[in-house]
Amino acid sequence: MIERPPAIAPQEQTQAAITAMHAYFDATARARPRRERQYLAHEWLAAIRRLRTVGHQDR
To answer: Which of 9, 17, 18, 21 is deepest in the core (most CB within 10 A)?
Structure first.
């Protein structure tokens, strides 16, 4: 199994969190249904948690 360099994974996770944040704000701006916004908020927070977990592993 080929492993990626450690610097790439956090960058990808940061981008995933930013993408999730944009999706949530876009859905909010377009007044999407509450259930969809809740789902997107959950995805955004999950991406942030994954990012924070990686940050703590490096220490």
So the answer is: 17
Q: Burial level of 41, CB count in 10 A (0-12/13-18/19+)?
A: middle
Contact in structure between 44 and 24 (CB atoms under 8 Å): yes
Helix axis angle, 34-57 relative to 8-29, nearest 10°?
160
User: Which residues span the domain enclosing 46?
Assistant: 31-59
pLDDT, residue 58, reads 52
Residue at 16 is within a domain:
no
pLDDT, greater one: 53 or 37:
37
pLDDT for res 27: 94
**Which DSSP state fits 2?**
P
